[in-house]
Amino acid sequence: MSSFFDVIKKNAGLVMSYLLLGIVIVFCETFSVNLFQRILDSITLKSVDIGEIILYSTLLILGYILNYVDNYPTTKLSSKIYLDFKINAIRKIRTIDYKEYQKLGTGKILQLIENGSNAGRNILFEYGFRIIRELIPSLMFSLFFIAQIDIRIMYIIFVGYILVFIVTNILLKCLYSVKKEVLINEEGFNRKLTRGFMELVVFRIYRRFENEIKQCVNMEDNIVRGKSKLVMIHEAFFTAFAVLIGIVKIIILCAQFLGWNLSVGEIVALLTLVDKAYTPIAIFNVIYIEKKLEQIAYERYKEFLDLPNDTALEQVDNNKIENYNIEIKGLCYSYNKRQVVNNIDINVKTGEAVAFVGESGSGKSTIIKLILGLLKYQNGSIKIGGIELSKLNLNKFYTKISYISQDSPIFDGTIRENIVFDRKIKDEDIMKVLDLVELKEYVCSLPEGLDTEIGEKGQMLSGGEKQRLALARVFFDESELIILDEATSAMDNLTESAIMNNILKYFSNRTLLIIAHRLNSIEKVDRIYAIKDANLIAEGTFAEMLDKSEYFKQLWTASQSEDYK
User: Fold this and answer.
1) Residue 115 and residue 117: Cα distance in Å, rounded?
2) Domain edges within the chain
3) Residues 194 and 264: beta-carbon distance below 8 Å
4) Lesser CB count within 10 Å: N end or C end of the chain?
5) pLDDT tens per residue, range 413-438
6) What is d(CA 497, CA 207) in angstroms, rounded to the nearest whole number?
7) Fold type of domain 2-309
8) Pair type for strands 353-357 and 511-515
9) Which CATH number is associated with domain 326-560?
10) pTM value?
11) Rounded to whole angstroms, how far apart are CA atoms 353 and 356?
């Protein structure tokens, strides 16, 4: 429940004003009914009190004004609560344990967050707040004024309450399983949609769209059928409830035949107050059912929020890294009982450029993720500047790291924004860097130049252009450790070699860790580590590796023939 309390605490002033305003509105509406009854009876008795008419008129006008004013906190609070739950999800991604993050599917998690944020807002806003500001006050004020007229009507209403609660429990059992099935199908449907949008080329070439569409149609049928069931069960409740209110009103209208002495004003007031006494119960039962159903979605969202965090991101760290020497001893890491990194020793001095080579799945990227602290090593040691990595505050550590993967972390925005974000950097300085990554000529050819929009995930650029744009960003970082994880894999040989040479010259005083896609791009690095089947099997300069390592020779031959990926 901490998320609910966090949201309430963040919006405490707005919540309080919203609740108080609701109570005042309900009081004005209920008290005006009582005043109307007294005025009606006084007219019948020809003893009209002008003071009561003025008070009634004032309450009537005040109610209209307050209902108008109420739109502001209602809209503002509803929107803020919904968005606050989404922001909490972003905060969770910021600290989530990397292994848990890897298990999440993008489409599924986006739908889960969407459903969970809606559910959280509805539980808090449509259930909790509504009960406090509207239902309880309306119920209490109505019963009070009904009791003032005839307490027997109040007893009849209580009997009706019991019937309503019995019906509610029956409905809840029917609705719970239907709602859960709808949510699961919605998450699966969104996952299919996201996958189709993100993997257009692969799905088109392998003719997967027909199968995906068929599965989406099946899920659509289940979702529509389930939502239709939910609506019909709800409407059945409202119909039964309307019949119950109608019976009570008939009893009131027949009061004279039952020997009850009620005035015209009292009958009119009772007919209105019965609605006000029963409606909160009807609404409560409906929103209670909705709340229980929304809890299914919210619990799935809460399970996501409760996933383990990486405590190293925020841990206390008084260490000061004097240099960026990397010392790795006996490093081991396994996943699903498979040894991914096995007893590896590596030493990298500040200012050195080293490369990791090996076949796909050999363990290269895992070593990088271990050095970054994303994955936690089970045995061995990683020291940065002589300090054990597990003792470092990772958020502080990351301020001195640049990391570029082969996936090219490009976002929807301009070329300028993708390179320097919102920093004020001169155009000529940006152009100098674009020249180093072989993009200057292309950008200069664009009508909008640096202010050209590149679309979501850089869809206006080729794979190689996206990688070059991502690399340009590194030149404006104040990083001591630069990690390139196959960051040039989509480039042609000549472009890759030229850019890598520029990077090695420009960052000659920084520590570079490079996972190479093609080996001709790492001829000038200080040292190469060859990884095979989770083991370090050779190390040395490029020339030394060609001379003494058969495995490296095989990789080199494969790379030259473009078979090595």
Assistant:
1) 6
2) 2-309, 326-560
3) no
4) N
5) 899 988 988 888 999 999 999 999 99
6) 36
7) ABC transporter transmembrane region fold (1.20.1560)
8) parallel
9) 3.40.50.300
10) 0.71
11) 10
